[in-house]
Structure formats: structure tokens, C-alpha cells
Amino acid sequence: MSRRARFAWFWLAAITIVVMTPFASFAAGESIGGTLIQRLGDEKLPVEGITITVIQDGNTIGTGESGADGKWEIPVPGAGIYMVRLETSTLPEGVALTDPDKQELSDVEVRDGQAKKVIFPLGEGTFSTVSPYARVGALFISGLKLGAIIALSAVGLSLVFGVTGLVNFAHAEMVTLGAIAAYFFHGSTLGPQWPLVVAIVPAVLVGAGFGWLQDRALWRPLRNRHTGLVAMMVVSIGLSFALRNLFLIIFGGEPRAYPNFAGQPPIQFLGISMVPKQLATIAISLIVLAGVGLFLQRSRSGTAMRAVADDADLAESSGINVNQIILITWVLAGGLAALGGVFFGLNEAVQWDMGFKLLLLIFAAVVLGGLGTAYGAMAGGFIVGVAVEMSTLVFPNELKAAVGLGVLIIMLLIRPQGLLGSKERIG
Amino acid sequence: MDWANILIDGILATIGPITAAYAISAIGLNLQFGYAGLLNFGHVAFMLVGAYGTAITVDFGAPLWLGVIVGIIAAALLGLLLGLPTLRLRADYLAITTIAAAEVIRLLVRSNWARPLTNGVFGIQGFADSFFTLNPFPASQIYGVGSLVVTGRKLWVMIVGWTVAAIITLFIRRLIKSPWGRVLKAIREDEDATISLGKNVFAYKLQALMIGGAIAGIAGILLAVEQQNVTPDAYLPKITFILYVIVILGGAGTILGPIVGAITFQFMFFTIDALMVSAQANIGWVGDLLTPAAAGQIKLVLVGIGMMVLMIFRPQGILGNREEVLIDER
């Protein structure tokens, strides 16, 4: 490219950014589509009800489902490069991608006016319809998995609120940081490429370290200046926004899966199809959460933490080093959020704004359980996770987030202190 | 690099209709955050609801003026809906609910489920023709001095936009100097004292949230009319944060703060952009390292950092009074 052309191009891009909401030109009828066929020997069977998602620059452009003839088509706003993803969780029992790596097709180019066709080859196993029992069971397991992720992430938010009174809006970015750190140690060619089970450890340490850094470098100085809570919340949301965009610059807009366990085949248990990594997520989360409970009940720091949450002045006057307890809380919150992030990335994909997407559900869980209570956040997490997944039995998939918001608002209307919260905290 | 041209483009961006819309929206946020101390982290949702209220109404065959009224009312109703469950509680709950609601509303609008009404990701276009037929300036005629020029179409939107901004500013000035405004500031300063004076604090907060929301709705409508286009992905959370920076920069809790903030912010935003583009074009290694997309993201990182730094070190902004800012207590 000549210097002049490059210059002109940069200006064009700059102006588009300044205008913020670029005037999209909608030439007629660009779309991406295809037919989902399962090959069984010589036979070809159409596969119905599979969700396909079209993504551009990390934003979902549209989703569609394959019809009875296996056909699907998703209109796109214009010519360009798109990523097309087949949601493997919607594949019926016994149907799988012949090449598990082809779940996502990046660089699908659509030209002006083109109805682009893409192919997802399906095969393996026998075709059978899923019984209502198996569907409910699978959704329940998937809800428990989501609940475990939410609970891990929510406990830290609730604990930090308990000891400092601050709702940390940058908590979601600690979740993302954990997932990205694990990707660096595990999947990235720049990192050491350890197996994921090993990479979890440094990822959690990075998260805990970031919690430590946040409190030492930002929140403790602000507390010492007696900054108001409203101002602190504005600072935390500014931090969240800055970090999120920093992740976008560093990690890019595309979602990426951890290479380990990517296309894990489901197993059957009691007639319900479940993926082992879901079960591992649930089991490990339960163990970790039980550990957090033991820590709060039995250890010196844990008891001190509860004392500070109850009444910081009283705790201080009885000899507890409040600043140190707050620091420990931040470290714990950072580590737990990072672990939640790794599990979220393992079960879905690692993406720059994954934490922000989870934030609504984390808030719903925390409010449901009672802001400031650790056990409430755990219980709230599992309830919200299961409720959101089960809601897809009745509502379309796209309304999942709305269900989370609904839980939040209904709870605020009927019992704002949450299931386990105390009334003084809310007024 | 031609600095005169950069300056002219910067001035054009600064006085353009988008700045006017941001200023109007910031006035609404200032009423909520600056005067009433309400943390609305989903301000962009009010703009979305205003814009879509107008576009959908016109899409059903109603005239544009009716659409504008529907849009404003819808935005105020959103304030009612979000305020009712949260405003009796601590400030956190409004913040949590608004930030969540803003994203959920955007996702709902772009979903296939709402497509019959909102046309999903494609949005609604061409609903403001009647606004442009009122334009007294020939649309393609060029107005201005030297190279500082705008088309007649843009001039019309600019004049309407800034006039609306001026009218709303006068309205807010009137409102704040009234007994109602004094109660609002009293709530921000000391809620318990205000309650003990027998004021219904909840009602005042709800009114502030609804009026501020309606003003944001007007801003959303102006943006939508200017572009003749509403799409859900024009209402990303980043707009809320940009508006916070505008309000804090100009001076939260001041009459002219949002307008000063919007103009200053847009000029700074544009200058940083010009500097980055110039660095990309003229310094080889910067051009290799910094893609245009990354440059846009760096500006957003700066928005977030700006929000933190302003709130910590200069919470009163350009025009504000440090005594009046919610920083040292509660």
C-alpha cells in the first residue's frame, strides 16, 4: 500500500470510530446458511434443532436453528468476514462433528449480496431423539455447572462487600483475568503450554495476586482518604471498563477454547448425557466452596473476616488488624474469581468480555443470597445457574439473560435483603 | 501532517450533532448522578428506549412527532420500572440493576424473539424523513467559512440539537433553583436529615430518575433521527461510561457542566485520535504495532482510566465546587 493510500485509510478508520455509530449500509440479502446432514454409512439424515451462531469482532450477529430438513440460514448485516459456530451442546445424543476442531469456522467471507453456504460435517453414533427426562436431566447438570461457576465468582464479590461495603464492579474482570491467564499458561504459543490442570494453579495465583495489587495500590489508599462509597463505585466501574478494553487489545475479539478437553465426548449416566468436564467443574467447585466455608468458620483469619463484616469498628477495637483482613479478603476474592473464570472458559470459551457477560448472573446470585453473605452467594449462585438453564425449557435461549434480570428484580421486590442477608445492610 | 486540517476536523466533531446528543444525555445523567446522587450505570438503555420508541411508533405508520412523544414517555417509564424496586434500598442496588438491565434490554431488542417489533440486529431505518422535509437549508448546500464547512442537512440537525440542549439546560436550571431542586440536593447531602424534615425521599429520587431518563431518551431520539437508523449495537455500555466521564469532567452537579464536559471530551477524544493516526502514519514501528482497531480500543481504555483518575483527583471537574461533591463522606 502506498503511503498516501495508507494515510487515507487511517483517516477513514478514524472518522468511523469518532462517529461511533457507523452508518451501516444494508445491501439486500447477505446471509450465511447451510444444511446439517448426518452421514450414517450411505444414509443421509437431516439434523433438526441445532443452534448456529454468527459472530463478528466478538459480537453475536445472529443465531439460527436448523429446521426439519436440516436447513438453516442467518441473515448478516453486510459483506465481511464472520465467524460461524455450531453450538455442540444442542447436538442430539449420538450426533457429533466428524472433526471436533471444526466447531467454529472463522474467516467465513461473505461478498455483497451473497448467500454464503458453509458445511459442518456430522457423523458418528446413532441418531435418536432425546426424551424429556434426559433433556431436563442434561439441563439440570448444565445448570449446576453454571451455578458452580457463578458461586465461585460471587463469593468473593460478596465477601469484599461484607468487609468494605464496596460493590466492586471490576470483579467481572478478575474472572476474565483468570481465564486469560490460564490460556496464557496452557494454550498460547507464547506461554509454557502446560496442561490445563497444571495451568489452573498459576492462573489462580495471578488472580489472587491481582486482588492483592488492587487493594494495596488502589482501594486501601482510597479508604485512607475517606473516599465515599459512591465515588469508589464509580472508580471501580472505570477500572472495569479500562481492564475490559485492555483485555480486548491483548487477547483480541475472538473467543478461544482451551486446547485440552475441547471436544470432550459426553458420557451416559442414569440415561442422562453429560460431559465429564461439567462434572469435574461441579465437583471441584463444591470442594473449594466447602474449603472456603471451613476457612470462614474455623480459621483465625476467617473468623476475623466475619467479625470485620459484622462491625469493622468493633473488630478493630478488639485487636483485629482490619486492613490486613481486608487484604486477605481481596486475595481470596481474586483467586476464587480466577478459578471461576478458568471453569467458565473451560465449559464455554475464553473471551475478553466473558466476565462482564457473567456479571449480571453474579449480581443476581449475590442479591438472591443476600449482599455481604458468603453462604448466601454460594446458594444464590447454584439457584440462579439452575434457574437460568432450566428456563430454556420454556423460553428461547436468547432470553437467558432476561431470566437472570427477572430473578434479580423479583428478589429486590419481595425480599431485598436476600435469602440469608440481614435487614440493616440494605437501607 | 496538516495540523490546520486536524484542528478544523476537531472543531467540526466538537460542534456536531453527536456532541449535542451526548451533551443532552449528559444533562440527564447529571440530574441523576450530580444532583440526586443516583448511580445509574445503564444510562445508555434510556437512549435506546427513546430511540426505539420513536422508530417503532413511526414504523407503525404514526407521524414522527407522536413517535418522539412515545419515545420520551417510554424512557421515563423505564426509569419508573428500574426505580421502583431499587430506590428504597442502598445506592448499590440501583447501580447493579441498571447495569444489568441496560445489557439485557439491548440483547432483547436484538434477539430473534423481538424481531417482529425491532427487526433484530438490522434495526429500523428511514423513519425521520418528515424531520428533514422541514429543513429550511438545501440539504446538499455547503455552509461555513474557509474549510470549516458543513452541509445543509448537518447544519439543520446541529441547530435543532443545540437548541434542544439549550432549552433543557434552562429547564434544569429552573428545576434546580426551585424547592424541588433544593430537596434533591438535600437528599444527596444528607438523606436522613431530609427524611426527618418530612420529605418523601423515595418519590423525589424516582422523579429525578424518570426526568433524567426522559432527557436521555431525547438524546437517543436525536442520534437516531440524525442517522435515520436505529440498531441495537449502537447502544453499547461504553456510551454510559463516556457520559460519566463527560459529567464528571464538566463538573457533576453544575448547570453547564454537561455541555462543557461534552465539548471538552469530544475535542480531547478527537485530538488523541488524530495524534495516534499521525503516529501510525509517520512513525514506522508505531504503524506496525498499532492497528486502527487497537487505536479505538486504547481510547476506550483511556476513558476508563480517565473516569478513575477524575473521580479520585478532581471529582469536581472543570466547573464544580469541591465542597458539593460526594467524595469525602458516607
Task: Please summarize the sheet with the most strands of chain B.
Answer: 2 strands, antiparallel
Rg over alpha carbons of chain B = 20 Å
| Separate helix tally of chain B | 15
* Pair with the biggest interface: A-B, 71 and 77 residues
Q: How would you write the strand order of the largest sheet of chain B? A: 1-4
Total beta strands of chain B: 4
- The coarse silhouette of chain A is elongated
- On the 0-100 scale, what is the average pLDDT of chain B? 88
Judged by helices, strands and strand pairing, the structural class of chain A is alpha+beta
- Cα(first) to Cα(last) distance of chain A is 62 Å
Radius of gyration of chain A: 24 Å
**Helix-residue proportion of chain B:** over 70%
What tags apply to this protein structure?
heterodimer; A: 427 residues; alpha+beta; four-stranded antiparallel sheet; three-stranded mixed sheet; 12 helices; 13 strands; 54% helix; 14% strand; elongated; B: 330 residues; mainly alpha; two-stranded antiparallel sheet; two-stranded antiparallel ribbon; 15 helices
The gist of it:
The complex is a heterodimer of chains A (427) and B (330). With 427 residues, chain A is of the alpha+beta class.
Overview of the structural elements:
The complex is a heterodimer of chains A (427) and B (330). Chain A is 54% helix and 14% strand. In chain A, a hairpin with a 2-residue loop joins strand 4 and strand 5. The longest helix of chain A is centred in the middle third of the chain and has 33 residues. The radius of gyration of chain A is 24 Å and the shape is elongated. By secondary structure, chain B is mainly alpha-helical. Chain B contains 15 helices and 4 strands. In chain B, the strands form 2 sheets. A two-stranded antiparallel ribbon of chain B has the order 1-4. In chain B, helix 1 runs antiparallel to helix 13, helix 2 packs across helix 13 and helix 4 crosses helix 5. The radius of gyration of chain B is 20 Å and the shape is globular. The mean pLDDT of chain B is 88.
